[in-house]
Amino acid sequence: MSAHEREEIETHEQRALGFWLYLMGDAVIFALLFATYAIMIPGTAGGPTGKELFELDNAAIETVLLLVSSMTFGFASLQVKAGNRGAVLAWLAITFLLGAGFVFLEVREFAGMIAKGAGPDRSGFLSAFFTLVGTHGVHVTMGLIWIVVLGAQVALKGLSMPVASRLHRLGLFWHFLDIAWVGIFSIVYLPGLL
Amino acid sequence: MEHQPPHALRSYLIGFVLAVILSAVPFWLVYTHALPPQRTLLVIGIAAVLQVLVHLRFFLHINFTTTPRENVLALVFTCLLLFIMVGGSFWIMFDLHSRMLL
After folding, report:
1. CA of A157 to nearest chain B CA: how many angstroms apart?
2. Domain count along chain B
3. Does A41 lie at the interface with B, CB-CB under 8 angstroms?
4. What is the pLDDT along chain B (102 residues), one digit of tens a residue?
5. Based on the domain organization, do B52 and B75 belong to the same domain?
6. What residue numbers bound the domain in which B83 lies?
7. A3-192 topology per CATH
8. Is B28 found in the same domain as B13?
9. ipTM of the complex, rounded to two decimals
10. pLDDT tens digits for A78-114?
11. Do B74 and A24 touch (CB under 8 A)?
12. Is the CB of B27 less than 8 angstroms away from the CB of A67?
């Protein structure tokens, strides 16, 4: 291994740690939004409750989409290591479609709630709901943009060390978002519909 | 393929199957109301904690041997922070609720 290669691996490891620290900070943000939501559940101000607004089918489909997308991203990561550019692009495209389906369902849910007069301005409960679930949705949307950018880099530059290193960090981000979603369906949707 | 552990694909598949089970059980309980609400909540909580651990282990590949020490330390420190901040928020807010007779 040349000195240059060793340097590149070291840079990659430093960036992976830096990104991991960012994700831990993000985890703190999500945890506090969860705490805020849990405290605000009774604060409906006479407006609709979760039981009247949430749809179990929608949450179940969103869960499936995100979980399968986490696995397909894992398959893309394996193909990065194997050096199969075409297969990486194919799995990234599938991951993108699953993530886009998730965002579509979430936007549709939000639009339906706002149309019913249950927007974030209706009550403290709904402010907390839109902040928590919306923050997660924005993260997924950013992840989708990131997938497109890195897909383009894979297509144009190939699976070079810097591109593979970026794909590794995107993988951490994408799997992390699925963990945040486990919290959302376990704290927001399932208890809300009980 | 040379650096790839032979069980890498299996890790994602095992993680996926476990995550499906740990999602299906709480969703099924809420769909069917098979258990009383208190017990269902308990199952939802346990399944969620287990599923987070499954994701960390099989998707993010966190373990105590190959994961860099700094990453594990950062994760443990984050858990401590979460315990203090979330636990503290609940303590203050529920105390406030009961004192103000809300």
Report:
1. 20
2. 2
3. no
4. 345 555 689 999 999 999 999 999 999 999 999 999 999 999 999 999 999 999 999 999 998 888 889 999 999 999 999 999 999 999 999 898 888 865
5. no
6. 67-102
7. Four Helix Bundle (Hemerythrin (Met), subunit A) (1.20.120)
8. yes
9. 0.92
10. 999 999 999 999 999 999 999 999 999 999 999 999 9
11. yes
12. no
Are residues B56 and B8 both part of a single domain?
yes
Nearest CA in chain A to B50: A182
B83 and B42 within one domain: no
pLDDT in tens, A99-108: 999 999 999 9
**B54, B64 contact by CB (below 8 A):** no
Q: Are residues B7 and B51 in the same domain?
A: yes
pLDDT, tens digit, for every residue of A17-34? 999 999 999 999 999 999
Interchain contact A70–B (C-beta under 8 A): yes
Chain A residues with beta carbon closer than 8 angstroms to that of B74: 17, 20-21, 24
Same domain (yes/no): B33, B76: no
Statement to judge: residues B51 and B81 lie in one domain: no
Mutation target vs B (from A57, A186, A187; most B CBs, 10 A cutoff):
A186
Domain ranges of chain A: 3-192
Of A32, A59, A191, which is closest to B41 when you measure between CB atoms?
Answer: A191
Interchain CB distance below 8 Å, A67 and B68: no
